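Re: the request from the purification team.
They wanted to know what the chain is likely to look like in 3D before they choose a buffer screen. I agreed to run a prediction and write the result into the notebook, where they can find it.
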Amino acid sequence: MTKQSLSPSVQEAVLKRVEEIGSEMISFLQELIRIPTVNPPGEHYVVNAELIGGKLREFGYQTHYIAAEGCHEHTEQYPRLNVLGRMEGSRKRPCLHFNGHFDVVPVGEGWTVDPFAAEIQDGKLYGRGASDQKAGIAASIFAIEAIRRSGLRLQGTVEQSGSVDEESGGFAGVAHMAKLGWISDDKTDFVIITEPTNVDRLFLGHRGVYWFKVTTHGRIAHGSMPHLGISAVDHLVDFLYDVNHQLKPSLAQRKTAVPVEPPGSRYASINVNAIFGGQPEEGMQTPCVVDRSGAIFDRRFLAEENFDDVRGEVKALLEQLQGKNPEFKYNMEDMMIVQPVQTDPNCELVSAISQSAEQIFGRLPKLAASPGTYDQKHVVRVGNVQQCIAYGPGILDQAHLPDEHVLIEDVITSAKVMALTALRLLGTE
């Protein structure tokens, strides 16, 4: 790293350039938001990937499109296409990789604005994906572009990727790219995932996730003679009762020492994602006892919890019910298991971005952990890149809510932090 890269004049020139291209950055973000990349099912991914790829080529990157070949999510109707741009400096290493996912969750009800119009009101840019997390993609791309337009060339290498399916686990996105070696410890030194972190804090990692499905089985019979059947719904209700009255109170007593934000997420938790069984809600009904029912659960566990124990206590509830009622039949299926991850708070990446944030905000950023999982799990577990954090614009607490928005000021400010961080980590010629 050269002295020039940290000189006040260089930094001042780059920060000024970020402000000068701020309107261009916001216009690009509006373009991203106007593409409804809703997951599920995974709509318009190709269009969005090509938009990002085109901007990266325009800004001097070698651009690669990475289809999720071999992943079951990748279909002819809904192709999964990731994009990665690489800009080599005078050296291949160190390599700083910015990643952002461009899939967004369904809109839901309660919006007062068009969720894909990307309207600006009172300094806020509205739209599904504005915070989570297309703003981060725009900020990282234009952060590096501000350095380039300042007439500077970084010594190290910068990569930018836009990936799919983070909202459903990221297996066709960052996990797939890491498996293919696009993100790996033999070429990648630092990864910044541009998830929303309220702009003045950064996330070192996230809690663990266990998604599982419990299916209860009964015996079909005529609805007028339910005594001749066995209701799978009744069995499911019994299990849900025990989850609510035995497991949940126990989880509410378990608090992590990791600084998860918001504070309410520092406790272990369980949530029902879906319930199924019986006849379709729409259409004609026939009088039948339900012979199959079930639910999908989202269990968030702490760094202090052992996964085998997490799974075991669910199994114990089911066995307890079976012990009380021999007709209680069930099966339990693991759907997704994510171990907690946390980057060393004293590593070079955290130090560099902390110094950059302090320079912009006048105070060190708060080091925290995310309440939900994000693609750091794949960077660390699959790519084996240990220096990985999340940092970006956007209000975490309102991600996935109606009227999702991002403060325009925060997009520009976060780009400044990212640009200074790149200067510190990579240096200039």
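For the purification team: The first strand starts at residue 62 and ends at 67.
Please add any questions underneath this entry.
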